[in-house]
């Protein structure tokens, strides 16, 4: 429980340090999302890959896709109330290991705030 609380506090701190997101451009986000397609899918016929399908992720509680095997670290944070709101997604897309330190995602993150806002806008459409 103590470890879960520590991770949750870390994730909240990262999210609080992230800039408030202006509405992004979904069309531009679709182009940026190409970097994510090797591991994630979106859309009506999307299936899990190395990472889960991201339909409905914006605003959702973490770790909720029943047919995906999440890291134990992510599941601990999910039990603590981790939600993929825009701020948490922005922090995660910037530097995933700062939000989920022992998570399975090997992606280093996106560097541009505009790209992050655009990807979140794109994902919001699913």
TrEMBL record:
Keywords: Electron transport, Heme, Iron, Metal-binding, Signal, Transport. This is Cytochrome c. Residues 1-22 form the signal peptide. Transmembrane segments: none annotated. The keyword Electron transport applies. The keyword Signal applies. It comes from the Bacteria. It comes from Aliiruegeria lutimaris. Residues 24-126 form the Cytochrome c domain. GO terms for molecular function: electron transfer activity; heme binding; metal ion binding. Pfam families: Cytochrom_C. InterPro entries: Cyt_c-like_dom, Cyt_c-like_dom_sf, Cyt_c_1A/1B. SUPFAM superfamilies: Cytochrome c.
